[in-house]
Amino acid sequence: MLTVMASALTSAFNKYLEMVGEQVVFTGQFARNIFRDGFEWGEFLRQCFIVGYRSISLVAITGFIIGFVLTLQTQPTLKDFGAESYVPGMVSISIVREIGPVIIALICTGKVASSIGAELGSMKVTEQIAAMEVSSANPVQYLVVTRVLACTVMVPLLTIMADALALLGGWVGVNIQDHVSIVLFFRKSFNALHFSDLIPSVIKTFFFGYAIGFVGCYKGYHASRGTESVGRAANSAVVSASLWIILIDAIAVQITNLVYY
Amino acid sequence: MNDTLVQEKARPPVAGDDVVIRIEHLKKAFGDNEVLKDISLELHRGENIVVLGRSGQGKSVTIQCVAGLLEPDEGNLEVLGKEVKELSEDELKELRSKLGFLFQSGALYDSMTVRENLMFPLTRVLKMKDEAEMEKWVTDVLESVGLEEAIDKYPADLSGGMRKRVGLARTLILRPEIILYDEPTTGLDPITSREISELIVKLQEKYKTSSIIITHDMACARIVADRIAVMNEGAFIATGTYDELSKSPDELINNFFK
Asked: Transmembrane segments in this chain: where (chain A) (predicted)?
């Protein structure tokens, strides 16, 4: 019994090491190809359009509702303590520092990482990636570099937009019961914020974007043969990228606390 | 395809012809599964070799090794005078630009039109920039495969035979010296299958290529093969012309020709 367990554990550990090795090699290929001649600007812009523009409505609605719900949830409690005037500050700090970046990154993981994983997985299964390789084109440069960089650039922009809309949602939430002018609400929101809130949270969104693009590409690019593996690639891209986002967030909070507080 | 052309194609390679692919004692295993046990083969310039064999015998693995998509475990593999395993990444890239590969499915890029599929290797490999010149290359190669009208269509709008033709056009656009065909007629009706086989011969004559063709389709083999190599359990068990092998007393070989 013990021997079987030990053998299973060894096999699982070996597989894990293999995967880590593959990811290191893939990271190396990605890094090498960023600086190679012939950067695919056209494909990069197309991917920015797909990742950014096509996610705007989803991210906007999510951002607005986060701010709206957060206000509705906290306002009664703060009202009990006579601290209702702290609602804008509380909403802005919560949104900008933590909730906005993490929720939007998770939303993008569901939309973008799964789509990249499925697209590249399907290209792998139908031998389109192999066709690029044998025709001397560079599939890593064309498919991976463009997608990872597009995610790295667009996720922070989407997060900033979502943060702004979340504040707007907060203002709408406050105005359901009370009447507060938009100028006053936003002034109080911004007064509560410092650069130490904004900068680390924006920086971490670049890492979130990178994780989303990289994991999506890695899972798709390493899909095995068969249509089932396309679904598996999309699914595991979402699961792995979500875990990476939580992990990066935990590390980012520790670093921010060490640097600023 | 008339019988004269079939007869003409059924010629053995001339001794002393240039060897463009030399495979010597090639071995390849996936885990415990030894797919290629000991493969040796020579492809001469201007020659078409058909590789016959049942499914899972290692035919596709052989040409994937030639194209550098898979790394052999043992043996020597020389393509256009260069030992593949000794090539650097850039050298392999250069070699691949002289090598065409027609995949079983055609492997067209789904998100691109036929025009974009054909321009893709021109801009990436030949670094062409002049739109008018590229358009001329694209039209020329589409004319060769008889699909000028499909230029703005997406792969999803094409039939199986048309996809194979576009795949062939994309392979030919870089003017390769060698073409590797992975089951070019699989999944096609007999008429389209015959058309593709005739097209392979026609294009080989026009572009002066040498080819390895993996197929189960004996009608295709009869039309395109100068020589046939029969593969079984990871090794070649016989090579010869269509006529020679069709008279073989070996039951396994004979079964293909029944």
From this structure: 51-72, 198-221, 241-260
Q: With contacts defined as CB-CB under 8 Å, which chain B residues touch A140?
A: none
- Domain ranges for chain A: 40-260
Residue A194's alpha-carbon distances to A8, A26, A103, in angstroms, are 51, 38, 21
- Paired sense of beta strands B19-30 and B82-83, if any: unpaired
Q: Average pLDDT by consecutive 10-residue portion of chain A (261 residues)?
A: 87 88 91 88 95 96 96 91 90 95 96 96 93 88 96 97 96 91 94 92 96 96 87 94 96 90 73
Please state the pTM of the whole predicted model: 0.85
Backbone angles phi, psi at B161, to 5 degrees: -65, -40
Write the DSSP string, A118-186. Answer: HHHHHHHHTTHHHHHHHTT--HIIIIIIHHHHHHHHHHHHHHHHHHHHHHHHHHHHHHHHS---HHHHH
Is residue A89 within 8 Å of A188, Cβ to Cβ? yes
Q: Which of B223, B249, B228 is nearest to B238 (CA)?
A: B228
**Cβ of residue A18 closer than 8 Å to a chain B Cβ:** no
Q: Is A181 on the interface with B (CB under 8 A)?
A: no
User: How many CB atoms neighbour CB B152 within 10 A?
Assistant: 10
pLDDT at B86 over 60: yes
Q: A73-82 as b/e, with b when 16 or more CB fall inside 10 Å?
A: ebbeeeeeee
Helix, coil or strand: residue A86: helix
**Interchain proximity A126–B105, CB inside 8 Å:** yes
Closest listed residue to residue A51, CA positions, set A204, A162, A159, A154 = A154
How is residue B157 written in tokens? 């709008």
Residue B82 phi/psi, 5-degree rounding, is -120, 135
Q: Distance between CA atoms of B225 and B197, rounded to whole angstroms? A: 10
Sorted by where each starts, the structural domains of chain B and their CATH numbers stand as: 3-109+178-257 (3.40.50.300)
Output the CA torsion sign for A46, A48, A50, A53.
negative
Closest partner residue to B107 (CB to CB) among A130, A137, A142 is A130
Both structure tokens of B247: 């008279």
Q: Which residues of B touch A137 (CB under 8 A)?
A: 120-121, 124-125
pLDDT at B91: 87
Among partner residues A131, A136, A137, which is closest to B107 by beta-carbon distance? A131
Are B176 and B203 in contact by the 8 Å Cβ rule? The answer is no
For strands B99-102 and B48-52, give the pairing.
unpaired
The amino acid sitting at A229 is: S
Nearest C-alpha in A relative to B65 = A134
Which residues neighbour A165 within 8 Å (Cβ) at sequence distance 6 or greater? A60, A63, A64, A67
The C-alpha atoms of residue A15 and residue A212 are separated, in whole angstroms, by 23
All residues of chain A having their beta carbon less than 8 Å from the beta carbon of residue B94 are 136
In this predicted structure, what is the pLDDT of residue B17?
Answer: 53
